[in-house]
Design brief:
Strand content: under 5%
Distance between the termini: 99 Å
Structural class: mainly alpha
Largest sheet: 2 strands, antiparallel
Radius of gyration: 25 Å
CATH architecture of the largest domain: Up-down Bundle
CATH class of the largest domain: Mainly Alpha
Number of strands: 2
Number of helices: 5
Order of helices and strands: HEEHHHH
Shape: flat
Helix content: over 70%
Mean pLDDT: 81
Low-confidence stretches: 36-49
Strand order of the largest sheet: 1-2
Number of domains: 2
């Protein structure tokens, strides 16, 4: 009788551990999905808004046909932009590691800077293409909303007088 009780106790403990692990796994995957859904975020358009299907359907009023085109465009843009961003972040980490060495290799740092610059250029090109293609399926009101959503990617609101951007970039200012 005592042996049966021990076996049943261990089975209950095993089932409790298994359930806890299952619940933990579910919670972990839900958080990862939420994180992935908001990877592409734009700051300042009424807070942070993920540029996902729900946003374009609810906030911008995309119809079924527009949503189909959005999904197609997003399936190309999102993985490309995430890959480039990952590569940039990886290079920045290598750059930081090199900078914190007792003696930094300035040639390697210049090469890393160049690689990051090329990747930034690719990312902007991908973003511009995505924007232009989205703009093509928008009505005039949606085009205005789209411009506001993408504005933080192209115009920084954080620049101060220290950056001499008070009156816009130098190339836009009139000469005295």
């Amino acid at each position: 009788m005592l042996r049966k009780t021990q076996i049943l106790t261990w089975l209950v403990v095993l089932l409790l551990v298994l359930n806890a692990v299952t619940i933990g796994t579910i919670i972990y995957h839900q958080r990862q999905e939420k994180k992935a859904a908001s990877e592409l975020s734009i700051g300042t358009y009424g807070g942070t808004n993920p540029l996902n299907g729900r946003f374009f359907r609810q906030e911008m009023g995309f119809n079924t046909q527009q949503m189909d085109v959005f999904r197609e465009l997003n399936q190309a843009f999102r993985p490309a932009s995430m890959e480039i961003t990952f590569r940039i972040d990886s290079l920045k980490e290598v750059m930081y590691d090199q900078l914190t060495q007792p003696i930094s290799d300035s040639l390697q740092l210049q090469q890393l800077s160049d690689e990051i610059g090329v990747l930034h250029s690719q990312l902007k090109k991908e973003t511009v293409l995505f924007y232009i293609r989205l703009k093509e399926i928008c009505d005039p009101q949606q085009q205005q909303q789209l411009a506001e959503v993408f504005k933080p990617l192209f115009i920084s609101e954080n620049l101060t007088d220290h950056g001499n951007y008070r009156n816009g970039p130098a190339w836009k200012r009139k000469s005295p």
